[in-house]
């Protein structure tokens, strides 16, 4: 007999939804049953049908008529739509992983604070820059208190969608909050840069951290950073340090690169891959927790 | 006053790069007062990388830029205070703060191909009652058709002026002329030009832009700007006066400001050093010069090698973190080859 799996659905049949579809097909603990969109002709829904999933083309209302299809729902629509979806899904008793910047639920970075959020009914994934850099801020902070952390995320222009572009302040503001609330820095700052070079560049991130005077423990910090790299790699295989961290007085500079898995989105868009990979990781942790409870 | 050309003085913003963002309230007050008294219509003040640019990435400001803006506003009764904002670095929050202090013009700067990130900020600036400029940086990196398309976007968002910004000081006079001409033919709002003097062409480029119809021009007194600096304002005023083009700026007062107030602020005179010449030659963002010099010293390599490599990799404005990254790589490959 197959091991029990928890049923999940994807709301949103765009690029992110389709990439999630590819990733979920490989999960040991999640069973993707359905993809929900609003356009029966959309590429995403066509692909869902081809892969044998239930394709619902009447939006969230269509899903709510068949709530048995999933216990966990990924929302890969938009921040605006999510506000409505969040209420309806909460009422229906579903756990929700919010891929949009709506920030209704607690911020989660799987490598840092998954454990404390297993009972939350709505999880927000902050931003791509946050998913890539907050683990490193935390890795430094768990050794030496971080007074200030600053991150610079550079992504290829092609991987920045119209939503990100029209609302770029949301990225800097939400990421800064995440650096403090989840990374543990006393103060945080985030910068995002779009680079149009062809062929498109991989997502790059630089993390600067200033630790409290007199607390720099170079060997321990580097060790902690390398452990964190492995931890994130366990769910984002293309996540890596570009070089060894550079330490200068009480400042640590960390250079990161994220290559996407190339499931549906191109490899250069590591910024999108890290979001879908983190989403799947959160759902798997939810599922394991739920399955463990059923066994008791 | 009738003016044919409206000058925006950028020494207190672009010039901030040249002095590693160390302006004091006292210096800004003196410079802004002198610019105001000389009749310069717009004075730009912010961190060199725009509002909220103070960072480990670009250099920390000695003084909070809001205090500098406030100081300038209080002494400028004729000139308008402008601020620069790069979406992705600064946000609407800082724009509102600057507007509240009395800034009247918002210049929203994006890479030449990325105008759509400016929509939100141009709209916000308009709502705050500010005059708006769409500032298309690194203009040499896109074909003219692309520049035109992006300028039209800026215009559609409500920009009152669209600038061609030669951030690398790379463009040659003919290239500036064809860009300005293309914009004049395709957009209805004012067209501006911002040059850098890395190839000693800032003045020639500015004149080429004016000849093709640009009416908004950036200058920096005593060339106080990133790289080799910008078009030297006091010289531009003199040249345009000879050409019978009215700027409304008092030449003697500008000269005195340059000599008596700006020169003492400069730690080293603004010259075309080998680093700034390399910026213009390789097409690299002008504010990278000082960072590359520091990285070269740290890794024991030639700063020109860093800049040339950055040019090859098509690095855009704001990617200062690439400098140390590339320097470390060059140092490593040198160590291996030895």
TrEMBL record, chain B:
<dbReference type="GO" id="GO:0009098">
    <property type="term" value="P:L-leucine biosynthetic process"/>
</dbReference>
<feature type="binding site">
    <location>
        <position position="167"/>
    </location>
    <ligand>
        <name>substrate</name>
    </ligand>
</feature>
<feature type="active site" description="Proton acceptor">
    <location>
        <position position="17"/>
    </location>
</feature>
<feature type="binding site">
    <location>
        <position position="194"/>
    </location>
    <ligand>
        <name>substrate</name>
    </ligand>
</feature>
<dbReference type="InterPro" id="IPR017629">
    <property type="entry name" value="4OH_2_O-val_aldolase"/>
</dbReference>
<feature type="site" description="Transition state stabilizer">
    <location>
        <position position="13"/>
    </location>
</feature>
<dbReference type="Pfam" id="PF00682">
    <property type="entry name" value="HMGL-like"/>
</dbReference>
<feature type="binding site">
    <location>
        <position position="14"/>
    </location>
    <ligand>
        <name>Mn(2+)</name>
    </ligand>
</feature>
<dbReference type="InterPro" id="IPR035685">
    <property type="entry name" value="DRE_TIM_HOA"/>
</dbReference>
<dbReference type="InterPro" id="IPR012425">
    <property type="entry name" value="DmpG_comm"/>
</dbReference>
<keyword id="KW-0464">Manganese</keyword>
<feature type="binding site">
    <location>
        <position position="196"/>
    </location>
    <ligand>
        <name>Mn(2+)</name>
    </ligand>
</feature>
<feature type="binding site">
    <location>
        <position position="194"/>
    </location>
    <ligand>
        <name>Mn(2+)</name>
    </ligand>
</feature>
<protein>
    <recommendedName>
        <fullName>4-hydroxy-2-oxovalerate aldolase</fullName>
        <ecNumber>4.1.3.39</ecNumber>
    </recommendedName>
</protein>
<feature type="binding site">
    <location>
        <position position="285"/>
    </location>
    <ligand>
        <name>substrate</name>
    </ligand>
</feature>
<keyword id="KW-0058">Aromatic hydrocarbons catabolism</keyword>
<dbReference type="GO" id="GO:0030145">
    <property type="term" value="F:manganese ion binding"/>
</dbReference>
<dbReference type="GO" id="GO:0008701">
    <property type="term" value="F:4-hydroxy-2-oxovalerate aldolase activity"/>
</dbReference>
<dbReference type="InterPro" id="IPR000891">
    <property type="entry name" value="PYR_CT"/>
</dbReference>
<dbReference type="InterPro" id="IPR050073">
    <property type="entry name" value="2-IPM_HCS-like"/>
</dbReference>
<feature type="binding site">
    <location>
        <begin position="13"/>
        <end position="14"/>
    </location>
    <ligand>
        <name>substrate</name>
    </ligand>
</feature>
<comment type="similarity">
    <text>Belongs to the 4-hydroxy-2-oxovalerate aldolase family.</text>
</comment>
<dbReference type="InterPro" id="IPR013785">
    <property type="entry name" value="Aldolase_TIM"/>
</dbReference>
<keyword id="KW-0456">Lyase</keyword>
<dbReference type="GO" id="GO:0003852">
    <property type="term" value="F:2-isopropylmalate synthase activity"/>
</dbReference>
<dbReference type="Pfam" id="PF07836">
    <property type="entry name" value="DmpG_comm"/>
</dbReference>
<keyword id="KW-0479">Metal-binding</keyword>
<feature type="domain" description="Pyruvate carboxyltransferase">
    <location>
        <begin position="5"/>
        <end position="255"/>
    </location>
</feature>
């Amino acid at each position: 007999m197959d091991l029990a799996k928890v049923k999940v659905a994807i709301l949103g049949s765009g690029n992110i939804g389709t990439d999630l579809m590819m990733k979920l097909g490989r999960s040991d603990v999640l069973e993707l049953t359905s993809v929900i969109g609003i356009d029966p002709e959309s590429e995403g829904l066509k692909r869902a049908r081809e892969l044998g999933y239930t394709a619902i083309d009447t939006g969230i209302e269509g899903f709510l008529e068949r709530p048995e299809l999933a216990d966990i729902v990924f929302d890969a629509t938009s921040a605006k739509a999510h506000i409505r979806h969040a209420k309806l899904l909460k009422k229906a008793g579903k756990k929700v992983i919010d891929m949009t910047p709506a920030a209704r639920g607690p911020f989660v970075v799987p490598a840092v604070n998954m454990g404390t959020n297993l009972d939350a009914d709505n999880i927000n994934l902050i931003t791509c820059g946050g998913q890539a850099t907050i683990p490193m801020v935390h890795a430094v902070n768990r050794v030496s208190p971080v007074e200030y952390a600053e991150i610079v995320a550079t992504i290829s222009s092609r991987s920045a969608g119209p939503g990100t572009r029209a609302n770029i302040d949301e990225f800097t503001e939400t990421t800064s909050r995440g650096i403090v609330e989840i990374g543990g820095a006393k103060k945080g700052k985030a910068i995002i840069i779009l680079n149009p070079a062809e062929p498109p560049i991989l997502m790059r991130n630089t993390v600067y951290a200033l630790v409290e005077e007199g607390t720099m423990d170079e060997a321990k910090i580097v060790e902690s950073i390398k452990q964190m790299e492995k931890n994130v790699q366990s769910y984002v295989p293309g996540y890596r340090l570009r070089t060894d961290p550079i330490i200068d007085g009480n400042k640590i500079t960390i250079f990161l690169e994220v290559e996407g898995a190339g499931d549906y989105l191109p490899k250069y868009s590591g910024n999108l891959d890290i979001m879908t990979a983190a989403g799947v990781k959160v759902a798997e942790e939810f599922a394991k927790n739920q399955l463990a409870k059923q066994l008791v | 006053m009738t003016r044919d050309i409206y000058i925006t003085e950028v020494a207190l913003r672009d010039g901030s790069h040249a002095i590693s963002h160390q302006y004091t309230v006292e210096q800004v007050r003196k410079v802004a007062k002198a610019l105001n008294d000389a009749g310069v219509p717009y004075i730009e003040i912010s961190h060199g990388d725009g509002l909220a640019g103070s960072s480990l990435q670009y250099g920390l400001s000695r003084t909070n830029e809001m205090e500098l803006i406030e100081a300038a506003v209080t002494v400028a009764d004729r000139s308008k205070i402008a601020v620069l904002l790069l979406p992705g670095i600064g946000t609407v929050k800082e724009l509102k703060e600057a507007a509240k202090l009395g800034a009247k013009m918002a210049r929203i700067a994006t890479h030449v191909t990325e105008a759509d990130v400016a929509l939100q900020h141009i709209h916000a600036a308009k709502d705050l009652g500010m005059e708006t400029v769409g500032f298309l940086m690194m203009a040499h990196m896109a074909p003219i058709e692309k520049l035109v398309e992006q300028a039209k976007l800026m215009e559609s968002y409500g920009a009152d002026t669209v600038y061609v910004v030669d951030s690398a000081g790379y463009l040659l006079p003919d290239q500036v002329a064809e860009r300005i001409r293309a914009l004049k033919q395709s957009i209805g709002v004012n067209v501006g030009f911002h040059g850098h003097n890395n190839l000693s062409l800032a003045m020639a480029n500015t004149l080429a832009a004016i000849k093709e119809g640009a009416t908004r021009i950036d200058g920096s007194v005593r060339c106080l700007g990133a790289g080799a600096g910008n078009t030297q304002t006091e010289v531009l005023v003199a040249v345009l006066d000879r050409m019978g083009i009215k700027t409304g700026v008092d030449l003697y007062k500008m000269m005195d400001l340059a000599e008596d107030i700006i020169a003492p602020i400069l730690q080293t005179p603004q010259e075309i050093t080998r680093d700034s010449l390399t910026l213009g030659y390789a097409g690299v963002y002008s504010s990278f010069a000082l960072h590359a010099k520091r990285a070269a010293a740290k890794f024991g390599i030639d700063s020109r090698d860093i800049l040339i490599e950055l040019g090859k990799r098509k690095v855009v404005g704001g990617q200062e973190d690439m400098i140390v990254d590339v320097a470390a790589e060059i140092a490593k490959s040198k160590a291996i080859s030895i």
